[in-house]
Amino acid sequence: MINNLSHVSIVVPSLDAAAKRLAELYGLKIGAINVNEQQGVRMAYVDLGNAKIELMEPSRPDSPVAKFLERNPKGGIHHFCVGVDSVDATRADLTAKGAQVLGDGKPQHNVHGERIAFVHPKDFLGALVELEEHTKA
Prior knowledge:
globular; 8 strands
């Protein structure tokens, strides 16, 4: 089912300011900025080798990330993401065990085109969890 930690996602009010801060304090460099229209975010990753830090900034005012910033104006950790072999199989398994996988079951995709889904925080110790499908090459 879960096979790795992909990333920890942090919502920020400004990608530019976050990138500058991470570079000045930690020597970290963000990658290319991408937009995920479906999720309503601008995002960039800091690659740490074994996992990534994902920085997200809202790209529209009605996105879930914009609503997160309304409640947390300085930003903060939004979710963590784990890799799975199959989003559909993991969704079915978790649902059968009584967990709530968010959404209506329609496929969602990240900026890389990989299938994703989210597990409700009540079903993972209070943390929002993204399931990210990693296809085997």
